[in-house]
Design goal:
The complex is a heterodimer of chains A (about 400) and B (about 425).
Chain A lengths: L3 E9 L30 H26 L5 E5 L1 H10 L1 H12 L3 E3 L14 H19 L5 E2 L8 H9 L4 E5 L2 H4 L7 E4 L6 E5 L1 H8 L14 H10 L5 E7 L13 H13 L4 E3 L2 H7 L2 E5 L15 H4 L2 H12 L1 H6 L3 H9 L3 H6 L20 H21 L5
Chain B lengths: L1 H14 L1 E5 L10 H14 L4 E6 L11 E4 L5 E6 L7 E5 L4 E4 L1 H15 L7 E5 L1 H14 L3 E5 L3 H5 L7 H13 L2 E4 L2 H11 L6 E3 L19 H8 L3 E6 L8 H14 L3 E6 L5 H11 L5 E5 L3 H10 L2 E4 L9 H7 L4 E4 L12 E3 L4 H13 L1 H16 L4 H20 L2
Parallel strand pairs in B: 1-2, 1-7, 2-3, 7-8, 8-9, 9-10, 11-12, 11-14, 12-13, 14-15, 15-16
Antiparallel strand pairs in B: 4-5, 5-6
Helix pairs in contact in B: 2-15, 3-4, 4-6, 9-10, 9-13, 13-14
Classes of the chains: A alpha/beta (about 400), B alpha/beta (about 425).
Chain lengths: ~400, ~425
């Protein structure tokens, strides 16, 4: 009997959304992120809302599943900005994550603390943010990540080489057809030009069946059931692993409870584990259990976003380009100050979500509802961000630095 | 049953004749009403609608897609419109004598002239644009029994800048027309709500047909902008913020000036170009000097043609701070001439135009914030412009014309069935 495993990896992230920050605040008020509770971009309100709709019920369910099924395992990554906000506004959420990890069947994946795209702008800052994240994870969960994922699964050969040299045993990427060609994401691969590291590729069709198409799957036109899903997987006879990578918030926030998403999760282990030899693996577990079948070459950056699978959702227009280069332009000066509050504020502005909110790709044609952002328009997002950036400059100027 | 009539309906569509009652057409227009009527009729003519457009003045038009007739009484040779809203009309009589007629009397004269003209005109539908033509429309409906559609580009409370406000004589005409009309067309949901609110008209009687802007209305710019001073200042790093429109209470310019004061304090190299005329002209000039920003404010008065087009083109940002704007074509025109916009949320165009900045007309601080942020960040300006142009290129009157043709057919059909 061949062994088959579901590798369920969930990504937990919350950014520090920039409040309505105007030119009147620039130079006068250095608080960019805290606002009144009921504002659309209130971080505290969002944490409370998502905790209630997603984190708490999902963690409770995951705990039940771990207790009930000895073979049930998952992998998680949790950004530093999310952990900080849980510590501040929802300690019970953090506590429930700790309890999950304490069972020994949850693996934490490494990433940048600030969920930034620093890899593409500043290798120094990128490494600092990865290190910061590692330390935070060690401090909170007592684990040191062995597998790495970059923000938005933004991956290329250079990143793989970096992760290999940094000592990671595995790295995650999108299983994108133009890169894979005839090959399937349901095996373990190795990135080109690397020594030891192994590559796990997201099966985006199966992942998206849950994350995006759950309530109306393309194949059935009905909400997906655990038994159907499990059946699809079992039909793929030669496959070894099914890499289901998605936002944690899929459960209860992107897909609301009334879609039946929790029921799906609840029954998935039962349906899957009834087959002999079928199991769940964490990312490291999968890497250890299967041999590499081939090498994968990704010279161009591939992400898990949009039909393009590139960085255009974050860096596709002039506002995004300028805002990103503007922020990294101040890096050396900001670090030169040794002002920890200033450095932390600057770093919070490196979070990729800020640039995502400025995306204009989907904003035409009045199709703004499909657009997931606390702001009314990408322009509003840019205005708040850039005024905060001007304030960072103001603070540098106040310290006598030339800006 | 519909199948039975389909053949007949097709014949009806081909034969559809519309008596269009309007107040102005380009180039003698004071603003958006004339542009909207022109483009709407052009789009309708492409759907084989036969239009006779009756104007309250005589002028030469370079228009071949419809028949244009001036509503003159017999002894009048020519009626000259200044092209400025609410200005008097000059009557030139057969004997060479001249007389000026005010807007209200002109409206009554139009009604009588139209009443005489319709005896010799054949049409299936009466389509009247705004209060100045409503009495003529009502009269035409009474004498012929043809369905009357009134098209609302603005109502009196918009023009007065406050709910319940305005000239009672005008309100009476509007009220009567809204009750008598077979159908009411509003240029935005905002306007639909205002009609229902101000006149107790059931919303089901009011259909929203948004205005649009067709590409061919935007004429090519030449190499040199008419504003030579502003062109030079821009080379020196100045930014130009533009408003084009009537200087009237509805347009909310005092708030723009107050915002300008804040912007100029932050970014002294910002100039404001105010193009248009109206009863607030001197008041605004006074306000600018009171605020101490006269050096940064440029008032040009009413402009046409190249000067008008170049006003949009010279801007880094177009601002429409209207207190009440039933639709508001100017931000779309600005997009066509290469300039992004900041518009008030109290405008109909905000319902269909997304790639622009939006602000509540009373929120002077936020207006200043957004203007300053654009002035400081070229990337924001450029992206806004690129995306607004993209959106603008997709606009077309075609859809609006389709809704109207459908409406014409319905009303013509029921008028004939129930006659």
């Amino acid at each position: 009997m061949s062994k088959k495993a579901i590798v369920l990896y969930l990504h937990v992230h919350q950014p520090y959304r920039v409040r309505h920050y105007t030119i009147f605040d620039t130079g006068a008020d250095h608080n960019y992120f805290d606002t009144e509770y009921h504002a659309q971009e209130s971080n505290e309100r969002v944490i409370h809302k998502v905790a209630e709709k997603s984190y708490l019920p999902t963690n409770a369910l995951l705990m039940d599943l771990i207790k009930k099924y000895p073979d049930f395992r998952i992998s998680l990554s949790i950004t530093g900005t999310a952990i900080e906000q849980f510590e501040r506004w929802s300690p019970e959420v953090l506590e429930s994550f700790k309890q999950l990890v304490d069972t020994g069947r949850v693996e934490i994946v490494g990433e940048t603390y600030y969920h930034s795209l620093a890899f593409f702008y500043s290798r120094t800052e990128f490494e600092r943010q990865v290190k910061m994240h590692e330390e935070k994870i060690q401090q909170i969960f007592g684990q040191t990540p062995k597998v790495f994922r970059n923000t938005e699964l933004a991956y290329n050969n250079d990143l793989a080489i970096w992760a290999d040299q940094a000592g990671y045993r595995g790295i995650l990427a999108e299983g994108w057809d133009p890169v894979l060609g005839w090959r399937s994401p349901n095996f373990v691969y190795q990135p080109t030009n690397t020594e030891n590291i192994k590559l796990l590729l997201k099966n985006y069709r199966l992942s998206d069946d849950i994350a995006y198409r759950f309530s109306e799957t393309a194949r059935t036109n009905k909400p997906l059931t655990a038994s159907t899903f499990s059946h699809w997987l079992s039909e793929s006879v030669d496959s070894q692993i099914f890499n289901l990578f998605m936002d944690y918030e899929t459960f209860g926030e992107h897909q609301w409870e009334d879609t039946g998403i929790f029921n799906f999760l609840k029954h998935l282990p039962e349906e899957w584990l009834r087959h002999e030899g079928y199991t769940f693996m964490t990312v490291s577990h999968a890497i250890d259990s299967f041999d590499v079948v081939d090498r994968v070459d990704m010279p161009d950056t591939v992400t898990w976003a949009d039909t393009e699978r590139d960085l255009t959702a974050w860096l596709g227009n002039k506002m995004q380009e300028q805002a990103s280069s503007a922020i990294y332009e101040l890096e050396d000066k900001v670090f030169g100050t040794n002002d920890l509050a200033l450095i932390a504020d600057w770093r919070k502005l490196t979070t990729s979500d800020h640039f995502y909110y400025m995306c204009t790709k989907w904003f035409s044609d009045g199709d703004i509802h499909a657009y997931f952002s606390p702001y009314k328009s990408p322009y509003e997002a840019f205005m708040n961000f850039i005024n905060a950036w001007h304030d960072i400059k103001f603070r540098l100027a106040e310290k006598g630095l030339e800006v | 049953m519909f199948v039975k009539y389909r053949h007949k309906l097709k014949k009806l569509v081909r034969a559809m004749r519309v008596l269009m009652l309007g107040w102005e057409l380009p180039p003698n227009n004071s603003g958006g009403l004339g542009v909207a009527c022109y483009q709407l009729c052009k789009a309708l003519s492409k759907k084989s609608i036969d239009i006779e457009f009756i104007l309250p003045y005589s002028a030469d038009h370079d228009i071949d897609f419809m028949k244009i007739s001036p509503a003159c009484s017999q002894d009048v040779d020519q009626i000259v419109s200044s092209g400025i809203a609410y200005d008097s009309y000059k009557y030139i009589y057969s004997d060479g004598s001249e007389k000026f007629v005010n807007i209200y009397d002109q409206q009554k004269a139009y009604e009588h002239a139209v009443a005489k003209m319709i005896d010799n005109t054949e049409f299936d539908i009466i389509h009247a644009h705004d209060w100045l033509t409503f009495r003529a429309g009502i009269k035409a409906r009474q004498s012929t029994g043809k369905p009357l559609i009134v098209h609302v580009h603005s109502i009196e409370s918009d023009r007065s800048g406050r709910p319940g406000g305005g000239n009672p004589l005008v309100r009476e005409i509007e009220s009567m027309a809204f009750m008598i009309a077979d159908r009411i067309i509003a240029v935005s949901h905002l306007t639909k709500q205002a009609i229902a609110r101000e006149y107790d008209i059931p919303p089901s009687k009011i259909e929203v047909v948004h205005n649009s802007l067709d590409l061919d209305m935007v004429e090519d710019l030449d190499d040199s902008n008419a504003y030579r001073y502003l062109t030079r200042m821009k080379q020196l790093g100045y930014k130009v913020v533009v408003n084009v429109g009537r200087l009237t209470i509805q347009k909310g310019l005092p708030n723009l000036l107050r915002a300008a004061k804040i912007v100029i304090d932050k970014e002294p190299k910002t100039l404001f170009l105010i193009v248009g005329s109206g009863e607030q002209y001197t008041e605004l000039i006074d306000l600018a000097s009171e605020l101490g920003i006269s050096k940064n404010m440029i008032f040009t008065g009413f402009q046409r043609g190249k000067n008008w087009r170049d006003s949009f083109a010279i801007g880094d940002l177009f601002v429409m701070p209207s207190v009440s704007e039933p639709f508001g074509l100017t931000p779309l025109e600005a997009a066509g001439y290469g300039t992004p916009s900041l518009i008030s949320k109290q405008s109909g165009v905000a319902e269909v135009f997304h790639n622009c900045l939006k602000v509540d007309f009373w929120d002077v601080d936020e207006m200043a914030n957004q203007i300053t942020t654009v002035v400081r960040n070229d990337a924001l300006r450029d992206e806004l412009h690129a995306r607004s142009l993209h959106e603008y290129n997709k606009l077309s009157w075609n859809q609006a014309a389709d809704s109207l043709v459908e409406m014409y057919n319905q009303h013509k059909f029921s008028a004939e069935v129930y006659a």
